[in-house]
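Re-run with default settings, no changes from the original entry. Doing this only to confirm the output is reproducible before filing.
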Amino acid sequence: MSDDTIYDIRWIRSVLPHRYPFLLVDRVLEIEPEKWIKAYKNVTANEEFFNGHFPGHPVMPGVMIIEGLAQAAGILTLHQREGREEKLMYFTGIDKARFRRPVVPGDQLIYEIEILRLRSSYCKLRGRALVDGQVAAEAVMASALVDR
């Protein structure tokens, strides 16, 4: 990070419209505008999705991991955009999604996102979600910027 901004949950809420129980980024560790971001989510046993996935053997759904990657990508692409309060990022594609290891309560999920292509209303990004340095999931994502 090149400035003194604290990229905590309050700041994240100022960038993303997501709220509990669907906000899946707790803190931004590092960010290089229009290039990459590193953020995390602390996975707890209290997550709503663990009530049904899977009782007695909780595993974070892969779709939620991809959503967390997308939210980190949204922070990266929206945080410096003028008028971001009036915009949303929508998925337009998810390619090469792979799930390498389960994510369970107690894990810290590290999101690493890099921009592959950035246009005024479109971006393509590569994301990895890691636990203890091991890749849990990865995907190439495409998104469109739309008005709220």
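Residues 94 and 141 are 5 Å apart (CA to CA). The chain has one domain: 9-147.
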